[in-house]
Amino acid sequence: MKKNISIIGSGFSALAAACYLANQGNAVTVYEKNDSIGGRARQLKAAGFTFDMGPSWYWMPDVFERFFADFNKKPSDYYELIKLSPAYTVYFGEKELITIADNLPAIVNTFENVEKGSGKQLEIFINNAKKNYDIAIKDLVYRPGVSPLELITLETTKKVDQFFSNISKDVRKKFKNQKLVQILEFPVLFLGAKPSDTPSFYSFMNYADFGLGTWHPKTGMFDVINAIVTLATELGVKFETNAVIEKIIVENKKAIAIVANGKQIPSDVVLSGADYHHTETLLDLKDRVYSEKYWDSRVFAPSSLLFYVGFNKKLINITHHILFFDVDFEQHAKDIYDTPKWPDAPLFYANFPSITDETAAPEGYESAFFLIPLAPGITDTETLREKYFDIIIERFEKLTGQSVKNNIIFKRSFCKNDFVSDYNSYKGNAYGMANTLLQTAFLRPKLKSKKIDNLYFTGQLTVPGPGVPPALISGKLVAELIKKNTY
Fold first, then answer.
1. Cβ 429 vs Cβ 464: under 8 Å
2. Main-chain dihedrals φ then ψ at residue 246, nearest 5 degrees
3. CA atoms within 13 A on the CB side of 331
4. Are the beta carbons of 310 and 48 closer than 8 angstroms?
5. How far apart (Å, rounded) are the C-alpha atoms in residues 364 and 362?
6. Is pLDDT at 222 greater than 70 in this prediction?
7. HEC states along 359-385?
């Protein structure tokens, strides 16, 4: 039977869920508090420059293919993908850098040139990571996190030890060179938790990196948002922007409506792709499943200080993606997770989409996105933002051998306070809940409210976890759960 479904938020998980639910024959409306669709993956256009405001790495292309295939479509029906070559560059000091190629054999050679014997070790490591990827991404993450039994399969029983060791130990057993160690550890540090707290099984991220490569939609990650919105519209989904949700109405332990901009909207099902903690504050205290104490006890992935920057010249010695690891990698991790504070010497990441996409900047100019991972809940002021911009831009100039500061003609920052105000993000986190052992699968907040019927959740604070591909999967999982429970 056709249901009226109200979806709160318009990030990747909410949009994916909207497509699946509409395809089931439901009447679906997406309500977005901001003036544009996309959640953290919104787009910023200013001064002739175009910036993706959030996700900038297109990894796991097979997950995107699987999503569109569920609707008898292909990504190429909506956008063009470019495989980045090189995938990215890592700076460790002046003229001290490692370039990661777009194929595994070349990466193996790079490792071997840095540390004798490490090429063979990398082949072994990535082969195991591929097996983990096949188990995780092709099977486990497509399970709804309802029961611990979901993790018990013939394949995972052979890998049980990998849930009790960690990425850091595994990498350091095989590789002694610290530069290679940091390259292998960065995917989990930037997108989840300390490598020493991340189960070995998550090495599948390294296969996503080295095995499947780094891609870029021709005119930016917002191409993917546009694609899913186009698909959703074709399926009959309606969208309302500037729609601030003030309350979820509950009667007899059932969600029956939402209140948007003072207007009550009857709903057979309410699904939130907005921040999970914030969504529960839209309920009366008695109807919430997770307490403030619970949320405070969770390990969250980092927040971020972001800068969107336009230069009035083309830059040199850069690639599309660059990691700057010229400072103490482990100390920055401690400043995020152990004793949360602004780092004395921050690692940072930069991307220059105008290298790949001529629409990202006016001709002869360069667009850039800089990111510093930070502890969630940290103090955020304009003074601190400017201090850290000066720190990283001076290092950028030194490491790449060029002067750029006087060529900046556009700059906008985005940090913890903006994550809170724009996305109602708990403690201003940027990526969700960290991928630790005790926050995996069924141990994450549930897709379905345990207290309120017809109330569901999707996104980075629930199953399967942070990142764009998991967000698409989360949308599918919750749509299947709604179908199972409401028909």
1. no
2. -105, -20
3. 10
4. yes
5. 6
6. yes
7. HHCCCCCEEEEEEEEECCCCCCCHHHH
